[in-house]
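Can't paste images in this forum, so I'm doing it all in text. The chain is below; anyone willing to post the predicted structure tokens underneath?
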Amino acid sequence: MSEVPLQRPVFALVVRLGAAFVLSVMLVFVKLLGESGVHLAEILFWRQVVTLPVLGAWFFASGTMYLLRTERITLHGKRAIYGLIGMFLNFGGVLLLPLAEATTFNFTSAIWAVILSALLLHEKVGRYRWAAVLMGFAGVLVIAQPGKGDIPLLGAIVSLSAAFMIALISIQIRDLGKTEHPLTTVFYFSAFSTPVLALALPFVARSHTPYEWMLLGGLALFGILGQFLLTAALRIGAVASVIVMDYSALIWATLFGWAVFDRLPPAATWFGAPLIVGAGLLIAWREHRLSKTAPQLIAGD
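Text version of the structure:
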């Protein structure tokens, strides 16, 4: 069992920003694979299976095989179940919606994260962070423009469900991070989920072109890196704070949507984006202030 990690809230925000960029690139690979006709279950399989040999080799070469020892195997299994459901919904939303819109719906995870972190982790979430989350959600509403019928209903439901799972998984990772190394959590997620996904391969797998293999390789590489960064950020920072940095993914989704898929989001995005970015900056500032405040004063944040 490892020692309780030192909390570094500002660095956790930086790590989460890096994770947002890396995972945005990964979603580009997902969407390109979907457009090439690769089945979602097979995409998920290749996303996960490469993690096991890569991390196994790293543990062996670095002499850190002891990191695989755990007294929380049941919780790792539960995290894998939730993670597999969340990844299925997340990737499904990307396949059903344009990249920027799918990313926008995922931003509602911040709302769920605040509620769940307060209820399950008993973290102190005061008026500033509540206000910041509301401001961010207002930006999401401006961008999504609900009721106009421009976004497929099924895609919206899938992406919103993915957002809830992202928040719930963040709570689990935060709990695991108290005793487990980030790479341990990533390894067991793949160890539990890969066999389940392998069961679907006989029904969905097909031969691939070199281009598709390149996309699958990029998917696996960026997926491993992104998952590690997500886990590391939640190990050293509060859920309700670091998850808001996911809003930065809108910038990358917009750029990639334009550069790769030749699609720019509507004008409403440019009005809602400042609200979302402002929410992230407000929470980053408040978290930095709270890290310097005596514990007995944090309840009033």
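Residues 9-300 form one domain. The chain has one domain: 9-300.
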